[in-house]
Amino acid sequence: MILPYYMRLLCLCLATFFVVHALGWLAVRSMAAAVVRIAGTMRPRMASRFLFALRMAPAAVTVFLIVGFCVPSYVWLEPDLATERVGWFCLLAAASGAAVWAVALLRSTAAVVLTGRYMRRCQAQTPRERADDFVVVKDSAAVMAMAGVMRPKLVVSQMVLDALSIEQQQAAFRHEAAHRTSRDNLKRLLFLLSPDVAPFVGGSRRLERAWATFTEWAADDEAVDGDQERALSLASALVRVAKLGVQGSPTHLLCSLMEDDRDLETRVDRLLRAPAYAEKPMAPVVAFMRSAGLVIGGAAATLLLWPQSLGGIHRLLEHLIQ
Description:
- The protein is mainly alpha-helical.
- It is 68% helix and 5% strand.
- The protein has one domain (5-274, 292-321).
- It has helices spanning 5-39, 44-77, 88-123, 158-163, 166-181, 184-193, 205-224, 228-244, 264-272, 282-305, 310-321; strands at residues 135-137, 144-147, 153-157, 254-256.
């Protein structure tokens, strides 16, 4: 099929994204089990950041390669010919790349819209004198969560407030404030915005579940801040909220105090005793990651500053487009 100059560029970018992203996704998925085990040796906040970076790496690296190398090599070295033909493999890969991006954009947009509707519905139930502090809902479900992305706000049901003591409320509020400080809802949105390997074919659920677990542990630790009384208050608050009944989240962009009760025993156990983390064995891993980052960054900078290197990349793209 013959396409205009810039349509060929778009087709080439989408095809390159699909192929390179799929390779990166396969590499990350093959390491998922080992990576989760390694994260278990870290402190929860570091583990959550580590898993978030790894989850976003395939899409982020692929976009960087396209913007930094694919587009410049095409614009500088590709002649503006109206007769160049695009092969069927390139067209199929480009269509797949466009599809995975379309699905990602649709689901992230849907999550933002649903969250906005949910917040408006909750705010309509909140007395004006409390609207600045948090949103109080009178639903029959037990809710305590940080909702929203740009301006996240605490949503709590009246039944939860009635069930918790003042100390338990304060500990739970500190937990949700930790979610807001670390922008966990924004990270959830980036997960939704990150394309899958194929339309409607996710492969990062294990990393995302592990990330969610470590994120909750990190918020617990930051809420307690080494204070045993706060730890007891938060542990008892978790148990009381769980007894009220854990409901499914109405939107993806919501960090609940208790999303489900599967991790309840572990969280309570962590709060009642100081966990031990094998941090010393992680020093070589951290050093290796830093060195690898410096090497990769230096190589990328060298290629960008040496335009002749784009010739080889352009030849590879020519094979893809044919």
